[in-house]
Structure formats: structure tokens, C-alpha cells
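Problem 12. The chain below contains 146 residues. Write out its predicted structure in C-alpha cell notation.
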Amino acid sequence: MNKEMIYIAYGSNMNIEQMKRRCPKAIPIGKGILKDYKLVFKGVADVIKSPGDEVPIAIWKITEECEKALDRYEGFPHLYRKEYVTVEIEGKEETGMVYVMNRGNIAPPNCYYYNVIHEGYKDFKINRNALEKAYRESCKSIRNEA
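Solution.
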């Protein structure tokens, strides 16, 4: 039996076209907010605990097969680990899985990767302020090191 679970995406896995290729059985079920986290770039997207901040997210229903494909894509368990968080879906609290980086320094993403995420924000009709802020902060961190 293939159990389903809630997957919380904040980066390239918000992009519906990419998820169709990666996880054809994944079903987009909506958007939400990951509370007390902040979106950052460490070359790729990550979320870090940050009380009072919020990260817009895409919420998917995935199968075990999808989870295995995502594990490969995300470099689990070396690059990313899994955390289980509570999010509100249609007025009901649900526990979902989210990938969080194990380490890394703030650094801007490449243009292609950023645009993939940007499209995902459009796919889910999410305001792009958090995405643009994370990008600006990652660029600022590079300038400050120079």
C-alpha cells in the first residue's frame, strides 16, 4: 500500500511543471504559510528558524514513490534533512514534511534556479515579496564579504 503524506515546498518544488516531471503522482493542494521560519538562499533555497517571520509555501500531497524521488533530488540526507512541521490547510492543522539544509553559507542562486522558483510562486498565486527579499539579502551578503 502506498501511503500519502503532506509535503511542504518553498523552493524549486513549488514549480508545477518541474514537480510533474519529478513526481508525476504529486497533487498540488494549495498554498500556505510556514510560520517562524525565514526563506534564505545558500546557492539554493533553504528555510531557517526565525521567530516572527513567515515563508510562503506550496502544499502537495505526495506518495512514498514521490518522496523517494524528492529525496534523490534534494540530496537527502547529506545536503537536506527532513523536518516535520504543522501548517494550516483549509482551517485545519496538518503535519507535513519539509526539507531543511544541513549547512551552508548565504549565497545567491543562479538565474535559472531563481526563475524556476519565481514560476512556482506564479503557479500558486503567491506574493513574491519573500522571494525577492531572500534574493536581495543573499546578494548583500556577497557584497559584504568582498
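Discussion. The first helix runs from residue 16 to 22. Students who got a different answer should revisit the alignment rule from Section 12.3.
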